[in-house]
Each structure stands twice: as C-alpha cells, then as structure tokens.
Design goal:
The complex is a heterodimer of chains A (305) and B (248).
Chain A (H helix, E strand, L loop, with lengths): L3 E11 L4 E12 L4 E5 L6 H8 L7 E6 L2 E2 L4 H7 E4 L11 H11 L8 H11 L12 H13 L5 E5 L7 H15 L4 E6 L10 E6 L2 E6 L1 H6 L5 E5 L3 H10 L3 E7 L2 E6 L5 H10 L6 E4 L4 H10 L1
Parallel strand pairs in A: 3-8, 3-9, 6-7, 7-8
Antiparallel strand pairs in A: 1-2, 1-4, 4-5, 9-10, 11-13, 11-14, 12-13
Helix pairs in contact in A: 3-5, 4-5
Chain B lengths: L4 E12 L2 E12 L3 E6 L5 H8 L7 E6 L2 E2 L4 H7 E5 L10 H11 L4 H14 L15 H12 L6 E5 L7 H16 L3 E5 L3 H4 L4 E6 L2 E6 L1 H7 L5 H9 L8
Parallel strand pairs in B: 3-8, 3-9, 6-7, 7-8
Antiparallel strand pairs in B: 1-2, 1-4, 4-5, 9-10
Classes of the chains: A alpha/beta (305), B alpha/beta (248).
Keywords (chain B): ATP-binding, Nucleotide-binding
InterPro entries (chain B): AAA+_ATPase, ABC_transporter-like_ATP-bd, P-loop_NTPase
Protein name (chain B): ABC transporter domain-containing protein
C-alpha cells in the first residue's frame, strides 16, 4: 500500500469573474518511507494540494488516500496520522517554546517525553530558548519549533509546505540534513519547495506548474528523459552574448544559468557552428562545454512545452 | 575611464541597544554596476539597506548615495533611488495602469511623462492587454516584473531590490534578470539581495555579510578563486558557516 495515493485530485476557486483551477487532475503515488518533493514556483498549487491531503480543504474532484484513509471520508483518522507544517508560521506566538510543544502533544493525547527521541536532534537546538515566546524567535528557530510540533505525535506521514522559503543557503542545508535523519526513522515525508536545486535531495519528485504536474520520477530519471544537446557558454560580455544566442537560428533555447548561459541546439546544428557564429559576433574569451542538464533545465523545457 | 562611485560607505555602523547589527562596513558601488548584497538571515543586510535608502540613521560612519549624505540629505536620497521588495511592491486593488500612475505621481512626474512612459513600459513587458486589470489578478512573475519597472519608472540613479525573485518560476526569473541587465545598460545602478546563488553569478560584484561585517567583496570569479570553490553556493556556505552570532 502506498503511503499517499492521489488520483485526479482537483481544486477550483471561484472569484466573481472567473474560476481558477488551483489543482487540476493531479495524480501520483508516494511509497512508505519515501522523501517526496513537490517542486514548483508560487501559484503551482502546492499549498492547495497539501491542504486537501491533510483534510483542511475539500477537493472538487478526484480522490486521495493517506496511509489508506480517504481524505474526504476518514478525516479524523487522517488528522491523527499526519503532521503538517504550513508555509506560514502558525504556532501560538504568545506561548513559549515549551508550552507550544506541550500543547500539541496534549492535543494528540501524548507527551513530549514519549516521543522525545524523534525530535531530540532538532529540539536540542532550540532548548536554550525554551522559555522564550514563540513570537520572539528568529526565523530559523521558529522553523525548528514548528517541525518539532508537527512531529510530536509521531505522524505516519509528514507534510512540509515550503519549509525553506526565504531561508538562507546555510539554514536550508541544515534543514535538509534534518529531513534525511527523519527519513531514517521511517516517516514518509512530502515536502514542497520553489527551489529547483532541492529536487536532487528527494527520492522522487513531482514538478508542478499552474495546477498541473509536468513530470514525476526520481531526479535522475527526469534528467535522463531530457533529450537535448545542452551546452554551457561563457564569454567576456555575458549579456550581449545572451542577446546574440537568442537571435541565432541554431539555438532552440538559450538562457542564463549561473556563471554560464545554457544553450540547447537545434537538431541540425553542432557545436562547431555555434563557435563560428560566436566568433562572427566578435565575442572574446568564448568557452563552450557540454553539460548534463539539471532539474531546472528540465522544468523550463517542460514549462514551455 | 573608471566609472564614478555612486554609493560610498566608510565604517558605516548601526547599533541597537547592546547589539551591533551593522559593524563598520566600507565599500563602494560604481555607476551602472549590478551589485549583489548577500548574507545569511540575521547578518545585517536589511539594516544596512535601510541606512543606504535613508530610512534609518546610522550610529556612526559615513555614506553617500548618488552624492547625498545619509545623515542630512535623506529626502534627496529618496528621489534618486527606487526600491522593490518581494513582500510589498504594488497595490493589489489598483489596476496595472493605476499603479503606474500612482507611483509616477508620487515622484512628481508630469502627466505627459507618465503617459508616454506608461505606453513604453506596457509594451516592453508585453502586458498591454492587462493594463486595466487589477494587479491582484496577475501571476506572481508578472507582478514582480511590473514592480521592477515601476521601481525604475522615475529613472532613479540606483534601484534597491530586496529578494525580488523569491518563489518566481525559473523562466520568469530569467526574464526578470533581463530587465535588470537592460536597466544596468541604461546606467541605472542595481543593488540586489537574493537567496538564489546562481543569481549571484549574474552580478558584476558581490559582497557577503557575516555577523554585521562585510567578509568578502569581489567579482564572482574572484570570490571563487579566493575560496577555491567551483560555485558561489560553495563560497557562501564557507563564509556563512563562520558566523558566530545567533540568528536573532
């Protein structure tokens, strides 16, 4: 049995003028113990999807089960089994760290001591501030407390909605290290993120854009299905280089990517022609390399298809 | 000819009760430069930016923004800069056109200027058909591109961008950076913060703040050489890990 099974799940929002399909016939399976990433920008439908799966929002179509329980019929059963960390900090700001944790443990008929082993690694980092009110914690500390509270009843499936948004690179890395350790405790984790590079840290991912799933699979399988000859290009003047690449017939697509520009060549063109073209445009210090695409390259191609 | 310095700071410091948020930072930014201002959460970036925008008085040190002094000439500073952040940029319940009109008016631009520039801007962003739609109804990426264009509508000498591309899809993120390049080519200086390390590569020079101090400042290439790193991500991690100050 899958830990999470989603079948053509749909959510519509109605405004005065229009009907917005926030989630449109989304289907995927998550196996037990998997770290599954929903990768997509703002507006992809990640939060609506998570809120349906945690029974906080009713779907307008399709179905889904979490640990075998139906998200519409077995609401109470699911609420006991899942942990949910919303994107927006939602703990009690005027309770202390310790009070928040005790509160959530009590709600779930358990105690902090009973499940302390599960949160220990994370909790020790905020323990020095345990008498501080949650509202007075820094962003990183709030995030750690929220994770502890979502874990304190030992959930079967953990939903983390954009836990690393607005967080600096160091704290992001620390957070993913924590997730890896939780995975070792056999908790199934669904995590959403707008950072494409975090896809590589998941067992499997679904790439999502404007309510639809573009692709599902392991990061490696998604990358290997990217059938294009991709090159990285660099020259002295990067912006003029990009403009010239965009104007060239030989490039199916070109865009900046960190230190280099990425260029996807059209079928009948090769790297020699690329070099000749760039020389004809008088670019200096031109460097061209072949490269492996990454998830962001794949996402951009899928978006444009 | 060496380009002139449009931002200069010397030992710029901001102390709050018993806490030095910005600790004697000294750096210059050249006219037309794309300057990346990086640092971990809590390193002091926001406080530093608020001083440079004339919104917060420094405790000590010196700084000039387009020739204006951050202690005495804050009104002049506000006229010569533009500002955009991820959190707030446009009025959601005004239309695209109304937002542009509003900002143009705030900066004292004439009706003729606003009219002509609005037409150009709508065309450049390819949103002529959305001109009379509420900003709330636009996709995030469009909002951010519009917000940037509005921030430079009054032709400021410098524009401050505070995490302008957070949560934006990868295609739109690059379109956004193309707007930055175009503004830079027109001589507008760009001062930008970001959590995307690939975007640090798009800057001419990058500074990295740790515990209130500027720990490193160089071109992306120079930084990678100095820290023997292959990516800016790696440079950032090496430096930010040195932080001893708790993220408070």
């Amino acid at each position: 049995m899958s830990a999470v099974s989603v079948n053509k799940l749909t959510k519509l929002y109605h405004t005065k003028k229009e009907r917005v399909k926030a989630v449109e016939e989304v289907s995927f399976e998550v196996s037990k113990g998997e770290l599954f990433g929903i990768i997509g920008p703002d507006g992809a439908g990640k939060t609506s999807l998570f809120r349906m799966l945690t029974t906080l929002l009713l779907p307008d179509g399709g179905s889904a089960t979490v640990d075998g329980s139906d998200i519409v019929k077995d609401v109470k059963a699911i609420r006991k089994k899942v942990g949910y960390m919303p994107g927006r900090f939602s703990l009690y700001q005027d309770l202390t760290v310790q009070e928040n944790l005790d509160f959530f443990a009590t709600i779930f008929n358990t105690t902090v001591i009973e499940n302390y082993d599960l949160i220990k690694d994370i909790y020790v980092q905020i323990e020095p501030f345990k008498t501080r009110r949650a509202g007075k914690l820094s962003g990183g500390m709030k995030q750690k407390l929220a994770l502890c509270c979502a874990l304190i009843h030992r959930p079967v499936v953990l939903f983390l909605d954009e836990p690393t948004t607005g967080v600096d690179a160091v704290s992001r890395k620390e957070f993913w290290d924590m997730l890896k350790r939780l995975k070792d405790q056999a908790i199934t984790i669904l995590v959403s993120t707008p950072y494409m590079d975090e896809a590589a840290l998941c067992d499997r991912v679904a790439l999502m854009q404007t309510g639809r799933i573009l692709s599902t699979g392991t990061p490696t399988s998604i990358i290997s299905s990217f059938a294009s000859n991709l090159f990285t290009v660099k020259a002295e003047k990067m912006y003029p280089l990009l403009c010239d690449l965009e104007a060239w017939d030989g490039a199916r697509d070109s865009y900046s990517f960190g230190e280099f520009h990425h260029v996807i060549l059209n079928a009948q063109y090769d790297v020699g022609q690329l070099r000749t073209y760039l020389d004809s445009k008088a670019h200096s210090n031109v460097e061209i390399h072949t490269t492996q695409p990454n998830i962001e390259d794949c996402f951009m191609q899928l978006m444009q298809n | 000819m060496e380009a002139e310095n449009i931002i200069t700071t010397e030992e710029l410091t901001k102390r709050f009760a018993g806490f030095t948020a910005v600790d004697a930072i000294s750096f210059n930014v050249k006219k037309g430069e794309i300057f990346g201002f990086l640092g971990a959460n809590g390193a002091g970036k926001t406080t530093a930016m608020r001083m440079l925008c004339g919104l917060s008085k420094p405790t000590s040190g010196k700084a000039t923004i387009a020739g204006a002094d951050v202690y005495k000439q804050t009104e002049q500073i506000k006229k010569s800069i533009g500002y955009m952040s991820q959190k707030f940029s446009l009025y959601e319940d005004l239309t695209v056109k109304e937002n542009i009109r509003f900002y143009g008016g705030i900066y004292g631009k004439t009706n003729a200027f606003i009219k002509e520039k609005t037409a150009f801007l709508l065309h450049q962003l390819n949103i002529e058909n959305e001109a009379d739609k509420l900003v709330a109804s636009l996709p995030l990426g469009w909002k951010q591109k519009l917000a940037f264009s509005v921030a430079i509508f009054h032709e400021p000498q410098i524009v401050f961008l505070d995490e302008p591309t957070g949560g934006v899809d990868p295609v739109t993120r690059r379109e956004f950076w193309n707007l930055i390049y175009q503004a830079s080519e027109r001589g507008i200086t760009i001062f930008v913060t970001t959590h995307y390390m690939d975007e640090a590569e798009y800057c001419n020079r990058v500074s990295i703040m740790v515990d209130g101090k500027i720990e490193a400042l160089d071109t992306p290439r120079g930084l990678k050489e100095t820290y023997n790193a292959t990516t800016m991500d790696d440079v950032f991690l090496q430096l930010a890990r040195k932080a001893t100050r708790a993220d408070v």
